Amino acid sequence: LSVLVLHGPNLNLLGQREPGIYGSVSLAEINRLLEEEGKKLQAKVSCLQSNHEGVLVDAIHGALGQHEGILINAGAYTHTSVALRDAIAAVNLPTVEVHLSNIYRREEFRHHSYIAPVAIGQISGFGVQSYLLGLQALVDHLRNKT
Ligand code: DQA
C-alpha cells in the first residue's frame, strides 16, 4: 500500500511560521513521523511540499497508478483552489484532508474548504496529530475497501 502526502503553500516554513497557531515542529519532522507511522501501518509514505498550485495538481495526476490514496494539507489553497478539488475528483483516489489548526475556530474565510466535498473525511485542529490520525484513517479506509 502506498500513500502520497501533499503539503501546500507556506508549510515549508513550519516550525518558524506563526508557532502559536501551527506549533514548533518542522515539516521535515512531520514527514519523519508520517514515515514512521507508515511503517507501523505497513504503508509506504511519499511526501511532497509545494508553494505552487500547478505543481500540486501535477502531483495529484501523477499519483494515479503510483499510490492508492492521498493525504493532503492544501494550506491556503484549501480555501481558494477549484483546480486542486477538480484534480482530486479527476483521479478519484481516496483522499483525506488535514489541517494543523482548527479552521472552523479561525477567520471566516478559512471556514470553507473546496477540498472537503471530494475528500472521504477531514481532520482539523490537532496539530501534528491531525496528519497521523489522517494517515491512520486513510489506510484503514483503503484496507477495508480491498
Ligand atoms: C492550514 C490552515 C489554512 O487555513 C492555512 O492557510 C494554512 C495551514 C492548517 O494546517 O491549519 O496554511 O491548512
Automatic annotation (TrEMBL):
The active site is at Y22, H99. It comes from the Bacteria. One of its GO terms (molecular function) is 3-dehydroquinate dehydratase activity. The keyword Transferase does not apply. The keyword Disulfide bond does not apply. Substrate binds at N73, H79, D86, L100, S101, R110. PROSITE patterns: DEHYDROQUINASE_II (PS01029). SUPFAM superfamilies: Type II 3-dehydroquinate dehydratase. Pathway: Metabolic intermediate biosynthesis; chorismate biosynthesis; chorismate from D-erythrose 4-phosphate and phosphoenolpyruvate: step 3/7. The record marks R17 as: Transition state stabilizer. It catalyses: 3-dehydroquinate = 3-dehydroshikimate + H2O. Pfam families: DHquinase_II (PF01220). Keywords: Amino-acid biosynthesis, Aromatic amino acid biosynthesis, Lyase. One of its GO terms (biological process) is quinate catabolic process. InterPro entries: DHquinase_II, DHquinase_II_CS, DHquinase_II_sf. This is 3-dehydroquinate dehydratase.
